[in-house]
């Protein structure tokens, strides 16, 4: 069987193959089949990019990268390329005039091959590169210790019987050098607070690249060189700044567990494949807290995470992920049923024109027993409601029983400012007093709190200081040199002088809810003193002001904490948070019973809590017990890989608009990291990496991802690390070749080929006209006269 194909006016005869093979060849040579495949590719790409809900469906849970690596996409691309190749060979003769079409199709095939190579080997991730760490060397220390140079980082070192403390007080990215030799230059400065085992703390200032300017500052005395005659308080203590090399980067869109025994430094990685990414997976709603207005669908999950390294501390244990939360945070909720007294109150402030505002108050927690204008107390006996405050101000009650004198002294700033003034006589007595200071909510060793007022008392026998506590059994008199309890000549406190009775009631909130064994009592102290004082029942609302009331929702007397993840409802989530608030429920069976705990996501895996810099990074390992009883720390993060070589940050530069950095990103033109790479045991010269200006080393490209932004109050602060993007680009030149070839073919097909065809057509028409013109000339006879004249 043959088929006629017209090509530029000529007819070619092509024999059709027969049988199944012939049918397949004809199908893949069909232009319409190619158009159908191209349409299918367009639809697939549109769904993956423009309608992400399709690939994020619970049945798929695919990232965009995974969607365009899925076998259906690969299959359609391969079929399209086969169709294009067969249709080109069988339907488009290989002639110069058709070079454009052949170049376009060849370019598409080469681009496809290059893309398969590019995306098939693509690795992309990121890593934080910190600027410096402090190297600590002391006599008797086996090897130098390190402290990350970020504000707030701290460590303690035991050297023999001595305990040293070190903390990064502050950093400055542009510390001006005033020395004549380097005057006008700036350096990266790190201030380290040193707490020696003996003596007062001091601050040591270190400048990167200028060790000769290291010096100590003694708080309250200034520079050590001026106070004690030498630059260093302790010359045996050596603190120096050194690079903080980064050896790993974390891979995007991956999951992994990291394990190590408590006390060890190195983490063992377990890749966690098959975990979801976009949708919550819990088998029971009892495992979490959730908003009742946003139903939580039940979707069970059970994914094994096997060990891949012999050194894995849980190598013999069963480790499974049985829950996943896309956006959650740990929350504590109280319920009745504990074994000890622990009063907890839930109440709401309700108004006519505002949504209720809920509060949770814990009576025995000094930090959580009050909230703004509301306070929650526990009374051992219902009769003690009479001791509740009748005024929200702090009051010192002064009484002399023998004379019947008694009055309240409001404790205000004016009262305290007059503490250095004259004694205030107590009318009708030989006593006088002077208020020195007050200390509220001091935490005692047993966890209870006490508030005290220090009052200096003058009697006919002399002067002493009374510590007046809000717990009467703790009130004491102190005698000694100038009535100073810290004086070396001071005597031990004795019982209070009974001739003078002083009581102190610290400042209280205007609204007080007191629980006692038989009920609740409500107190409201307004601007003119007590206005409401009566029992109250759970669920009852008390109006304290017109249109504003307080409702007791629940009270637990033996409350026990129930800690679970709270699934944040979608409207309350940060839009671009990504996986930052993800959690997994991990079950570990190491032969000691199944241990189940929730693990929060960590963007990076760090060796210790020094790297949890200012809340920017997480560090919260969760402990499990191994079969041998040892403690194993587990962190949920991403897979990580070794860099071609360690990377160190030399410095960080800001390119700003006129006026410098003001705290607003609009004042920044660019930010540049200067990084060095360890190559063959030596650090390379610093390479500048700016936004949209990456650099290459070891087969990877490095680009700016994030940075340590200074605060508006401290423009020279921050810049202690840079977030570095890392990725490879295999096959880019193959892709570029395919694109260039296809573009060249388009230029030929749409611009060169029409010119060639037009010229050929003109030549053809000229050839057709020439024989006719020759016949006319041959048949024409010219007169002799005209010929002579011509």
Helix percentage: 10-25%
Query: What gyration radius follows from the Cα positions, in whole Å?
Result: 41 Å
Number of strand segments: 48
Q: Could you tell me the mean pLDDT?
A: 88
Largest beta-sheet details:
9 strands, antiparallel
Strand content: 35-45%
General shape: elongated
**Helical/strand content category:** alpha+beta
**With helices defined by DSSP (H or I, 4 residues minimum), what is the helix count?**
10
Ends apart, CA distance between termini: 66 Å
Q: Extract low-pLDDT stretches.
A: 1-12, 481-492, 781-790
Number of discrete domains? 6
Can you summarize this structure?
The chain has 790 residues and is α+β, with helices and mostly antiparallel strands. Helices cover 18% and strands 40% of the residues. Strands 3, 13, 42, 43, 44, 45, 46, 47 and 48 form a nine-stranded antiparallel β-sheet that branches.
Report on this model:
- With 790 residues, the chain is α+β, with helices and mostly antiparallel strands.
- The protein folds into six domains: 2-93, no CATH class; 131-246, no CATH class; 255-332 and 563-638, no CATH class; 341-386 and 510-557, no CATH class; 393-434 and 444-505, no CATH class; 641-732, no CATH class.
- It contains ten helices and 48 strands.
- Strands 3, 13, 42, 43, 44, 45, 46, 47 and 48 form a nine-stranded antiparallel beta sheet that branches. The protein has a six-stranded antiparallel beta sheet with strand order 6-7-8-9-10-11.
């Amino acid at each position: 069987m043959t088929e006629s194909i017209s090509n530029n006016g000529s007819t070619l005869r092509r024999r059709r193959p027969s049988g199944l093979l012939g049918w397949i060849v004809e199908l893949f040579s069909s232009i319409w089949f190619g158009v159908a495949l191209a349409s299918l590719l367009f639809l697939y790409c549109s769904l993956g990019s423009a309608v992400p809900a399709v690939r994020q469906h619970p049945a798929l849970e695919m990232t965009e990268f995974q969607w365009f690596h899925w076998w259906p996409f690969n299959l359609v691309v391969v079929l399209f390329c086969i169709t294009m190749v067969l249709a080109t060979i069988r339907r488009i003769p290989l002639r110069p005039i058709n070079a454009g079409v052949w170049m376009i199709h060849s370019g598409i095939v080469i681009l496809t091959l290059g893309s398969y190579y590019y995306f098939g080997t693509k690795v992309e991730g990121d890593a934080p590169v910190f600027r410096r760490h402090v190297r600590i060397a002391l006599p008797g220390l086996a090897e130098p210790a390190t402290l990350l140079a970020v504000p707030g980082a701290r460590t303690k070192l035991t050297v023999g019987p001595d305990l040293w403390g070190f903390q990064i007080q502050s950093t400055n990215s542009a510390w001006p050098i005033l020395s004549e030799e380097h005057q006008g230059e700036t350096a990266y400065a790190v201030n380290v607070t040193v707490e020696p085992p003996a003596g007062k703390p001091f601050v040591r200032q270190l400048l990167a690249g200028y060790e000769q300017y290291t010096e100590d500052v003694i708080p309250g005395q200034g520079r050590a060189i001026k106070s004690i005659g030498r630059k260093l308080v302790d010359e045996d203590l050596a603190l120096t700044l050194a690079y903080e090399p980064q050896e790993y980067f974390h891979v995007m869109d991956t999951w992994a567990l990291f394990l190590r025994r408590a006390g060890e430094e190195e983490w063992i990685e377990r890749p966690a494949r098959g975990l979801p990414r976009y949708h919550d997976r819990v088998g029971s709603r009892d495992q979490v807290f959730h908003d009742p207005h946003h139903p939580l669908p039940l979707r069970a999950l059970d994914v094994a995470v096997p060990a891949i390294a012999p050194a894995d501390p849980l190598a013999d244990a069963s480790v499974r992920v049985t829950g996943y939360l896309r956006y959650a945070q740990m929350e504590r909720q109280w319920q009745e049923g504990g074994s000890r007294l622990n009063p907890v109150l839930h109440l709401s402030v309700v108004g006519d024109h505002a949504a209720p505002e809920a509060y949770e108050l814990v009576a025995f927690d000094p930090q959580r027993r009050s909230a703004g204008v509301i306070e929650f107390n526990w009374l051992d006996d219902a009769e003690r409601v009479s001791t509740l405050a009748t005024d929200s101000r702090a009051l010192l009650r002064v009484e002399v029983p023998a004379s019947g004198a008694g009055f309240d002294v409001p404790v205000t700033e004016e009262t305290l400012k007059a503490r250095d003034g004259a004694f205030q006589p107590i009318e009708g007595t030989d006593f006088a007093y002077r208020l020195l200071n007050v200390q509220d909510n001091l935490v005692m060793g047993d966890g209870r709190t006490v508030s005290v007022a220090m009052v200096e008392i003058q009697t006919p026998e002399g002067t002493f200081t009374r510590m007046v506590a809000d717990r009467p059994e703790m009130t004491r008199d102190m005698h000694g040199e100038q009535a100073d309890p810290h004086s070396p000549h001071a005597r031990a406190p004795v019982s209070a002088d009974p001739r003078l009775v002083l009581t102190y009631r610290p400042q209280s909130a205007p609204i007080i809810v007191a629980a006692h064994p038989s009920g609740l009592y409500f107190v409201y102290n307004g601007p003119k003193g007590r206005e409401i004082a009566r029992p109250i029942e759970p669920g009852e609302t008390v109006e304290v002001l017109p249109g504003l009331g307080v409702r007791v929702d629940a009270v637990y007397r033996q409350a026990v904490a129930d800690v679970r993840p709270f699934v944040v409802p979608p409207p309350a989530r940060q839009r671009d948070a990504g996986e930052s608030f993800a959690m997994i429920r991990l079950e570990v069976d190491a032969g000691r019973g199944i241990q189940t705990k929730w693990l929060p996501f960590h963007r990076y895996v760090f060796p210790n809590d020094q790297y949890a810099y200012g809340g920017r990074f997480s560090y919260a390992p969760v402990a499990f017990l191994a079969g041998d009883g040892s403690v194993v720390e587990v962190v949920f993060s991403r897979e990580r890989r070794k860099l071609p070589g360690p990377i160190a940050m030399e410095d960080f530069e800001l390119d700003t608009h006129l006026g410098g950095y003001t705290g607003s990103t609009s004042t920044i033109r660019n930010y540049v990291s200067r990084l060095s790479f360890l190559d063959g045991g030596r650090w390379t010269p610093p390479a500048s990496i700016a936004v949209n200006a990456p650099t290459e080393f070891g087969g990877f490209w490095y680009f700016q991802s994030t940075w340590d932004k200074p605060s508006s109050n401290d423009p020279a602060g921050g810049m202690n690390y840079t977030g570095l993007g890392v990725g490879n680009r295999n096959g880019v030149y193959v892709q570029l070749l395919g694109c260039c070839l296809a573009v060249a073919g388009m230029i030929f097909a749409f611009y060169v080929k029409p010119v060639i065809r037009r010229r050929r057509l003109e030549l053809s028409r000229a050839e057709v006209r020439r024989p006719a013109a020759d016949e006319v000339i041959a048949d024409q006879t010219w007169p002799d006269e005209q010929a002579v004249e011509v």
